[in-house]
Amino acid sequence: MRIALGVIVLSAAVAVSGCSKKGLRELQSPLNGPDEFLVMPAKELTQPENYASLPAPTPGGSNITDQNPLGDAVTALGGKPSALAASGSAVPSGDVALVTAASRYGVSQDIRATLAAEDAEFRRKEARTANIKLFPVDRYADAYRKQALDPYDISALWRKRGVATPTSPPEQR
Asked: Residues 135, 138, 140, 146: what is their CA dihedral angle, to the nearest 10 degrees?
């Protein structure tokens, strides 16, 4: 009688453990504290060479210590932020031909929203079986395995076609 009761209790515990709503991966922080990624630090204060060359203060406007992520990225990659500002668009003048070629079949303006909705639906479908587990396991890689590229297979494919590819680290499967 005690063994049967133990089996029933164990079966019930396993069945209830599959009812959690965690999905594939818990990416939300359970804490209610501040999000350190929302804080953008200001640039370091420096003394100007000439105080007369400083721009006039603009209340509510930009400041020379404010971050400029796009301009900073262009500078870090060896570009000229002045060319970006002169063009008046997010595409530097030297890259217009590349962007035109990449968008020759049309550009969906709501691509991010569309992809987010499709991924949410995919996660909802994958989460059905992801909740059935006896131990806490991260099923994220398993869920997206069909969509992932194997870098070694892709490298071998291009090498067979005669394209020079950089060497890869040894394969560890």
From this structure: -60
Among 75, 76, 55, 78, which Cα is nearest to 65's?
55
Per the CB < 8 A criterion, the answer to whether 55 and 62 are in contact is: no
In angstroms, the CA 79 to CA 91 distance is 12
Which residues of the chain, if any, have pLDDT below 50? none
Q: Where are the alpha helices (DSSP H) in 33-143?
A: 69-76, 81-87, 96-102, 111-130, 140-143
Q: Say how far apart CA 100 and CA 91 lie, in whole Å.
A: 10
Minimal CA–CA distance to 95: which of 83, 112, 108?
Answer: 83
pLDDT for 35 equals: 67
Q: Are 108 and 114 a contacting pair, CB within 8 Å? A: yes
pLDDT at residue 78, rounded to an integer: 79
